[in-house]
Amino acid sequence: MKFTHSALLALAASAMAAPSATTKEQPRQAGACSSAVSLDAKTNVFKKYTLHPNDFYRSEVDAAAEQISDSSLAAAAKKVGDVGSFLWMDTIENIGRAEKNIADVPCDHIMGLVVYDLPGRDCAAKASNGELKVGEISKYKSEYIDRKYFLYTPFLSLIRYGGKKGKKADKRKNQTAIVKMLKAHPNTAFALIIEPDSLPNLVTNADLQTCKDSAAGYRDGVAYAFKQLNLPNVVMYVDAGHGGWLGWDANLKPGAQELAKVYKNAGSPSQVRGFATNIAGWNSWDESPGEFSTASDAKYNSCQNEKTYVEKFGAALKSAGMPNHAIVDTGRNGVTGLRKEWGDWCNVNGAGFGVRPTADTGLELADAFVWGKPGGESDGTSDTSATRYDSFCGKDDAFKPSPEAGTWNQAYFEMLLKNAVPSF
Ligand code: BGC
């Protein structure tokens, strides 16, 4: 490759300016480990590492506890902050939120992050439509996953954004991209959940125009994420819905093939460990015969609980040629029997926190129970006039009122806490 003189200058400037503003401000060494992490994705890393209780969720929970007047409930609330959970990078800007929380990860903890910003996100629903539009795949790649351009150089920012857009350029200067952030923390272990709902939607909602429009970007984006995030300190689990979604007999094989195809297109990256389930929409781990087993269509779904789903989908993934170990979200599945229909996913009313993160699942294929969706953050708004209002959030079995997806819902949090199984 040839470099022009100015490109070389830009390269040098970029190298000098590389650490982001956040990197400089944070006391990076505080809890940092002294040697590089090398995760073997052929093993269950959750046996060695505890899912990190990140300070972002802790601060949400602490603020919530302060609003609770009943002192014993407030004390119980505080304990929720000690539970390990995943932190969502749901916008380019919120990668910075993740970065602020890495400094204090102890050596025996693994930081859980959710990669969630595909163009045309949430194609079969409205609640979590994201910042990137269909077609903005190059932005997803170059600004969210892996910054390829030299946006840090004041010179190039000036050319790219001009004097008028100086503020925009300034903001970008302080942003990082995920690959860069992960590489800046080689001594920290990371578990990534890749793009909840995206590939499952291509299996079961392929006939919707919105999903047709999003399909190419989803496949390209997830493959790109797999490839670029394939770092020694990372293990990846790609979202596979839950038993009431890809667990239908007719969906198991196509679902596994969809995931495996993307994985192979990415060059079968070594750090992909398998799949994540129960994140958006959930089931009990091992209730038997299962919450919806008496429904008239139950005979078409042999995965009536999540344990069976992990076994069956895991087997289908293996046949399709993809690593097949799972992590399962138990953050909000403490109570069952609440939904009118299996597919009801929005702010389920009556829900309770479930089993705390552990690698002790009793099933070899299930690496760990984790808290994927941070309990208390909304699934979607119940305001019928909002642009992202989805009718699922207005159903009889959905909690109301509920704010926009990702926004804190104090009343929902208190309900999860009171209904927690096991209790706090
Ligand atoms: C929302 C995201 C949020 C995530 C975790 C998703 O439903 O769309 O904005 O970060 O949930 O709460």
Automatic annotation (TrEMBL):
Keywords: Carbohydrate metabolism, Cellulose degradation, Glycosidase, Hydrolase, Polysaccharide degradation, Signal. Its EC number is 3.2.1.-. It is an enzyme of class 3 (hydrolase). InterPro entries: Beta_cellobiohydrolase, Beta_cellobiohydrolase_sf, Glyco_hydro_6_CS. PROSITE patterns: GLYCOSYL_HYDROL_F6_1 (PS00655), GLYCOSYL_HYDROL_F6_2 (PS00656). GO terms for biological process: cellulose catabolic process. One of its GO terms (molecular function) is hydrolase activity, hydrolyzing O-glycosyl compounds. Residues 1-23 form the signal peptide. The active site is at D122, D197 (proton donor), D379 (proton acceptor). SUPFAM superfamilies: Glycosyl hydrolases family 6, cellulases. Substrate binds at W88, D90, H242, W245, W345, K373, E377. Belongs to the glycosyl hydrolase family 6. This is Glucanase. It comes from Thyridium curvatum. The lineage of its organism: Eukaryota, Fungi, Dikarya, Ascomycota, Pezizomycotina.
